[in-house]
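Researcher: I'd like a structural prediction for the single chain below. Treat it as a standalone chain; there are no partners to consider.
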Amino acid sequence: MYMAVIFYLSSQPNPIPQITERVWDKGLHTIEYGGLGFLLCRALIGEGIGWVRAAVLAACLTTAYGSTDEWHQLFTPGRSSDLRDLVADTVGGAIGSSAYVAARKLTQGAA
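Model: Treating it as a single chain, here is the predicted structure.
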């Protein structure tokens, strides 16, 4: 569902202009893909994958999805594809997956 929302927003020439006009584009990419990395890591760990492998795989999957999103924007009127956006997506995915692992370890350690 989260990936569908990303796809939908990428299909718009200027989604949520109240935010996109005031917030740095790369920061938005980092936050958006941080959420995706977090959710992917959660799903992978839930499937029994170890936390290190899950975090790395989630970051890689986030980068792969970011690549397809940038490619998709090549064909979207009013949008453009940008390698720096993909870097922000990758950083966000790594932060998000790492944040999930850290949060999980903190909550399990407290239990």
